[in-house]
Amino acid sequence: MKVPFRYHIRSLFYRKSTTILTLVAVGMTVAVLSIVLALQQGFELTLLTSARTDNIICMRDGATSEGESSMTRDLARKVAAIPEIEQKDGKPLAVAEMFAAINLDRVDRGSTNVSVRGTSDAALGIRDSVKVKEGAFFAPGKKELIVGRGLTERVKGCRIGGSISVGGEDWAVVGIIDSGGASFDSEIWGDVELLSAVFERSGYSVVHFRARPGVDVGAPAKMVKGRDCKETLVPATGLLGRLAGPDFKLKAMNERDYMEAQAGVLGGVLGGLARGLAIIMAIGAIFGCTNTLLSAVAGRTHEIGALLAIGFKPWQIRVGFLFEALVLGLVGGMLGILFALPVNGLATGTMNWKTFSEQAFAFRITGTVVMEAMILAAVVGVIGGLVPAWRASALKPTDAMRS
What we know:
- By secondary structure, the protein is an alpha+beta fold.
- The chain is built from 11 helices and 16 strands.
- The model has no long low-confidence stretch (mean pLDDT 85).
């Protein structure tokens, strides 16, 4: 005989109150997990959006972010002259930039650090996703700024016609850039030479460039753990290895690897927080599921005895109740996703712990979030159904029929 799946599905509708309470408990657990994971996904995708593996970032050896890096002008010119850089209109697709942070007032209350990038119009040739959405690009040699669209509603002065105090002087905001949700939406850009003077920088922070098609970019240096659990440094390879060599002595990474490293710390904290909260709430949901199915076993003892008497095996009863628990969990999981959906696309922001500056992003309920949420819901259901399933399958037909 087949496992009586239809019987178990129909029985869920006969216990409406306990079933609904269980679904809500599972749904709330899944909703909490989904919302915090959507926060994590939004933050990480903001950094990874438009990141390219053929865009190279050159920093000072030992630096972990653009804000920590510095290099001389001579070294920057030397990097920009290497033949591996792609050319456009006879000019290399490379730009030397200065990176800093300034403290600005929020629109609501308090203040925040905002990333300031000293650059030139060459930056638009390397960063395909960045477009001037409103206004115009800043004019070289003028105290003009363009701001990321993620700052327009979060930081005072970040609008066309507004002004931002840099080095004690007001700089006019002449444009708004849109990078399609990338991290540049949280930055302020201005002329690299003027900003370098304001921040008293004699050189640059980094050099960005686009590698020519066909160039072996290679992999950055990394620590690899051997069988003896000792870590060994594997040197960089390809173009990255050349830039790390004695001629340049730089730390070079492709743009995607760099952005993944920037997302790592806070992304890991948000992921850990999501899973920690989910585990705590899942314990309550498991007890709710167990209680619902134990009540079902108590109320359907006679029916279970009848199934056993007509030839169903104990394992079939056990599998049937586990299936019932799984259905409860999955339906509760879908309910939880629906609870969480209103936050999808909701704009927010936080401090990037790598750059210690404002990072605007939006909640993103992605396929990864849905998958993790439904796996949690299924696990909650199955674990909650273990005890009731074993109790139901352990009943003796004669005793069950007499009850």
